[in-house]
Amino acid sequence: MKEAKNNQIVPKWLEDLQQRSWEPEILLSGIVLYGMFKVPNLLDKFESFFKANIFGNSSDINNLVALSKMGIYWLITGLILHLICRGIWIGMVGLSYTFPSGIRKDNLSYKGKFDEKVQSLPSYETIVIRLEKISSSLFSVSFMLFMSLIGGYLFFLVLVILPFTTLYIFFDFWFTGVNYEIFQYYVIVVVVVGVLALIDFLTLGYFRRFSVVARFFWPLHVFVSTLTLSRFYRPIYYGMVSNFNRWAFFLFLLLFTVISLFGARSIAEYKFDGQAYSRLSLWGTTRGYNAYNGYYEDQSQDQSSRQAQIQSDIISGDVLKLFVPANIAYEDEMLELMSLDSLQDVHADTSLLALKLMVVENFYQIKMDGKSLDVDNWFTHYRTSSGQFGYLAFISIRELAEGMHRITIGSKHKRYKTLAIIPFYRDITVISNPKVDQSSRSEEVDFQPKPFAVRE
């Protein structure tokens, strides 16, 4: 055992572990990298399911997923760099064993600047020690960056998002008038506290270097540290601050913050790979002009449907199957338009589920090519492929002409006028099948939905 700088005896097992730390580092890097590459796709599915079933197009879930993905990308980048450095490190360790004398500079017989360059090269042992420090630092810093991003979001989640959501959902608290002004001042205070904590983080503890300021900043530091879970990465942070060049580490943290903020914003705003870097000017995702694959069941595979979905972008049959995912964000507005209690008073003999579907029918407004449809055959439906609860309606399009059409899914509530505009092509081409005779046709179940009624 050896004695540490603070006169604390280092156990022999810890000393051995420190010398062989590269083994668990490489093992963990490989395992974590394998899992991290799968997480962004899982986060996208979680966001899609959350929006489709819970709170619609809430920006809060966008920010959570964007920051989580940004943190994961930092972690992936750091671990890849760590594995590269460890690979070089292993190579240098092998060379130091193969060539114990290192570079035999006299055998090169270089002259002038070339000889000076070779003479300035460090020994293999020096390179191995440097790579050891760099590799271990990369491994630790990667987790610090990931945890600091998640901690930053937790700060605003606990102080802003959760109070707002709790008051709105459970206490029916509306942020209008005086309530809105009070909440605005509260958010400003939270933002100021967060900015002060961020400045202290980036400047490597600038506020802590003055006795008077540190005395007042201490309670704020404890409060923010608790919310941001900094206890998990504080030792790494202090180790880097106290051992690396402060200006270099400050610039690194500043670059990390700027890239993270702009990166998370791009992830939250752009939903297609490469869209943030695309220079296309004649392409967009404006509703009504975008054939989004999530609108079509045969193209979305196991992805959740955000607002509505039909079976395909080309409809060759006479029935349009419309699926609208159930969303808790709409239920208050549904009951606001039609009270379930009033329906029970009028339709006492009707089942409760049938009354609920009356509320659904009254809420959604379906239009075909701009003309309203009477859709009164809604059913509850569970989509096994995406794990979604929703409502299913069958619409007859037998009288619809061949060509392009748009079905619009909206609501009668003023808050949600248009939810989705789905384009599709009506194909009435009949392909004859000689193997099917008339007798077999007569035995088929004849399901004939009634033609939709058009309201001018």
Can you give me a brief rundown of this structure?
This protein has 456 residues and is α+β, with helices and mostly antiparallel strands. The protein has helices at residues 12-19, 22-36, 39-55, 59-98, 112-119, 124-170, 178-202, 211-227, 234-243, 246-269, 297-300, 328-337, 340-346, 352-363, 438-442; strands at 2-3, 9-10, 314-315, 319-325, 364-368, 371-373, 379-383, 388-396, 403-411, 418-426, 454-455. The chain folds into 2 domains: 2-269, no CATH class; 293-455, Sandwich (Immunoglobulin-like), CATH 2.60.40.
Number of strands: 11
Number of separate helices:
15
Assign a percent range to the helix content.
40-55%
Category from helices, strands and their pairing? alpha+beta
Which percent band covers the strand fraction? 5-15%
Quaternary structure type = single chain
User: What is the H-and-E element order?
Assistant: EEHHHHHHHHHHHEEHHHEEEEEEHE
- Number of domain modules: 2
Largest sheet: 6 strands, mixed
The low-confidence parts are 431-447
Distance between the termini: 90 Å
Overall mean pLDDT stands at 79
Q: Order of strands across the widest beta sheet?
A: 3-10-9-5-6-11
Overall geometric form: elongated
How large is the radius of gyration? Answer: 32 Å
